[in-house]
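Dear support,

We are seeing what looks like truncated structure output for some complexes. This example has two components. We would appreciate it if you could run it in full and send us the complete token output so we can diff it against ours.
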Amino acid sequence: MGKLEIMKAGLVGLSMCLAGTAVADPVKVGMITTLSGGGSGLGVDVRDGFMLAVKQAGNKDLTVVIEDDARKPSLAVQIADKMIQSEKVDILTGIIWSNLAMAVVPSAVAQGKIYISPNAGPSKLAGKGCHPNYFNASFQNDNLPEAMGAYASENGFKNSFIMAPNYPAGKDVLNGYKRFYKGELASEVYTKLGQSDYAAEIAQIRASGADSVFIFLPGGMGIAFMKQYAQSGVDIPVMGPAFSFDQGILQAVGPSAMGVKNTSHWAKDLDFAANKKFVASFQAEYGRLPSLYAVQGFDTASLILSAMAKADVKDTEAFRAELKKIDIASPRGPLKFGNNQHLIQTIYVREVIKEGDIYTNKTNGVAIKDHQDAYAVDCKM
Amino acid sequence: MTVALFAEQLLNGVQFGLMLFLMAAGLTLVFGVMGLINLAHGSLYMVGAFACAAVANFTGSFWLGLGASLAAAAAAGAIVEIVVIRRLYNRDHLDQVLATFALILIFSEGTRWVFGSFPLYLNVPELLSGPVSLPLGVEYPLYRLAIIVIGFAVAIGLYLLIAKTRLGIRIRAGESDRAMIAALGIDIRFLYTVVFALGAGLAGLAGALVGAIQSVQVGMGEPVLILAFVVIVIGGIGSIKGALFGSLLVGLVDTMGRFLLPWTFKLFMDPSQATSIGSALASMLIYILMALVLVAKPKGLFSANA
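Here is the complete output from our reference environment:
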């Protein structure tokens, strides 16, 4: 027994020495995300996806502090200050909404912290405002709508009614659609962020004579719009980026969303081994199907874990270089960072279907392969 | 712009206004009779929506759900009144705001604990689904028409209750002089519980009705609560008639503003900019309206104690 104890102690000591040479310090991640109020489903999925990867890795050197921003920019800024100054986190992540990201990210990266976005991808941080400490593991806001615009043009739509909330991501999304869509615009409408009644907008759609409706209404806004649209009797086809037709909200939308085409950088049925494993393990862990937000959270954590294994987080330059390699098995398949540290990834067209009792999406095909955002050229990195 | 579009937008404004009225009526009644500022009114709206969704999903009947929403919200209101609110009548408004704000947090987290963070499914019943054709070539969702009918029915019902019944007489007496009606031997504590439960029930009904066409999720009540406060400030605090006119005014101004302002700006501006500025201005419109009303009539349009 005595000898065994000594040996054990020696082994532990040895492994600590080894750890000392490869990864010196533990990594502390601060996650600021939306866990209460409207849109909390998105934050919960990002968190759950992130924590799934952490749990699977079982790396004791990684600690995660999670706080709720309640979708309020002022609160997110306060939490970020606290996490940087008193919690001394090395990496920040978690923000869902572009307006919150714009409030937090520029100052956090200027203070030398690494920020990895698991959801928001405002254009301002992709172009001139790019930063060596800012990585985007989700999408640039324009990506999915660009793919939808390309799809609409290819499928002969010539007169679109386009609508989004009046905040940075809403403008990025409509610009993205217009960049790849070649037809006419019946009308362009901005709504209030968090708006729940779309009667006035649906009346305009009815009167507009459009042949297609493109919407970007994430979370509860999309649920409300789709239900009201189905009741209105207007039958112009609706399409949009995946955010309004995602796993987290489809059950609440119900039959109103059947058959809607949407573009996404991930789908449940993508044929990658890592994807099958991810979907199965997420379902086993949480008892529900994952959403694209969960995938983004999962990939963000995988990125941090992969970089931790090879570099010390205190050596920012080396750590960033490891992050940039994306040495992970993503459910999205192969990923690559562009010069602005935003992803070059394939965007798919999906369609809402019903599998048994569950509403979900099936992949119809590729919209744009290896797509890079339009702002990368403005980034001097 | 066609006549049909304009008429449809007017109907939308009226429907939105009447939905606000269901919220504002309870809020103004509670403030008028008990002098209480109840920030948790939005939570009762949420309770109604969740009760309706849960019962409708369980039994498959929206109508049972609607009944359950009234009952659950009224019961929640009565319990809250007896356990918490009763202690606050003699405190100042700041204490009431603090306590009822705490109730919002308790209701929100409690609902999340029971139902989870993801929105619930609740759809319009078969009977009221789809659009109907109205004169002037207007196509309008039947369900929204039903909300208009229910809203007016509740307004008439409340008028009859307050003007014609014994309970109504007591409520009006309570508004004018609390001490006196207690001295006349009326059980004022019971009266307060009834009024609070009535207001809560109306909020729950509104939540259930709206839940069918919006999303049933935690935190759905607070945005409506803010509008309901705007309504009762415009209408005159404590006045049901004021709440009705205030609601219709806010509903129409908000809906028509969202529709007409961007359209007007497009006449002399680049469309993309026009919609952006127009919609930003439209979201401020009801607050501008409130400020204007307060300048002209500091106590609101139909102040109860004027």
